[in-house]
Amino acid sequence: MRMATKQQITQSSLPNLPRGTDLLDRAGLNKGTAFTEQERSDFGLDGLLPPHIENLNEQVVRAYGAYKLKDNDLERHIYLRALQDTNGVLFYRLVLDHIEEMTPIVYTPVVALACQRFSQIYRRPRGLFISCPLRDLILPRLGNRPNRDRHDFERHSARQVRSTGRLSESISRLRRSSRLCSK
Questions:
Q1: For a disulfide at 18, which of 22, 76, 92, 118, Cβ 3.0-4.6 Å?
Q2: Which helix (H) or strand (E) holds 164?
């Protein structure tokens, strides 16, 4: 899937593009308040967004302000994941603009805390989750995974967070490391 950019997108250039809330629900296409008046009209977004149109830089400033208002790292992690789920362009731009500050929030060490509290902070499905008691059912569960065009795989445990590459390699490693679930 291609990510929306600052450039204007048109219904005629992308005839299969979703409209209205279906478009806003696609993080890779949703530009939020950066949709122009013409795009809002073309894609049935009138009334679904605040009337003020922002460019990406303005959105980043606003999003960073909201990020800074969070009380702790776990709340900042939840905020960034929610942003990633709703507006991928804004999420990646925000993180890139503040890479040193935000890397620990979206990766090690805060993601380990997020994994420990996953059931409490769950907002929406982002991938395929297999708990330790179900580790022997990995292969049958792979058919349920969202984002079938992606082949990234992450393995998380309370003791260790490791990002790995290809799915097949990761499954082999996960099988060999079931001891991670023992504690």
A1: 22
A2: strand 161-166
Token pair recorded at residue 164 = 């790995």
Token look-up 């008046």 returns 37
pLDDT band at 36 (very low <50, low <70, confident <90, very high): very high
Given the candidates 1.20.1370.30, 1.10.530.10, 3.40.50.300, 3.30.70.20, the CATH classification of the domain at 56-113 is 1.20.1370.30
State the Cα–Cα distance between residues 93 and 84, nearest whole angstrom. Answer: 10
Cα separation, 109 vs 77, in Å, equals: 11
Element (H, E) at 122: none
Cα distance between residue 48 and residue 109, in whole Å: 37
Distance in angstroms (rounded) separating the CA atoms of residues 180 and 183: 7
Residue 163 — φ and ψ, nearest 5°? -95, 130
Domain ranges of the chain: 16-53, 56-113, 128-182
Average pLDDT estimate for 96-101: 96
